[in-house]
Amino acid sequence: MGPHSDFYICANLYYPSGNVIPSKQDVQFTRRVQRCGEMMGIDVLDHLIIGQKQYFSLREEGILEE
């Protein structure tokens, strides 16, 4: 993430099934959004997958590129 960006993205998905493990497509989508954001000077803060009682943060799990 850039130190001085004025714009940020945090993507959120809600999976009512409770399975918060990201699919291959979820990870690919996040990486595409991150690359597009880099070209426009927009930082992707995180991509959260939210279930009934838990969540998965791609940033916390090291899947989002620094």
Automatic annotation (TrEMBL):
Keyword Ion transport set for record: no
Record-level GO BP terms: proteolysis
Database matches in Pfam families: RadC (PF04002)
Molecular function via GO: metal ion binding; metallopeptidase activity
Entry annotated with the keyword tRNA-binding: no
Superkingdom field: Bacteria
Alphabetical UniProt keywords: Hydrolase, Metal-binding, Metalloprotease, Protease, Zinc
InterPro entries from the UniProt entry: MPN (IPR037518), RadC_JAB (IPR025657), UPF0758 (IPR001405)
All residue ranges annotated as the MPN domain in the record: 1-64
Family (UniProt): Belongs to the UPF0758 family.
Official protein name in the record: DNA repair protein
Organism in which the protein naturally occurs: Enterococcus durans
Record lineage: Bacteria, Bacillati, Bacillota, Bacilli, Lactobacillales
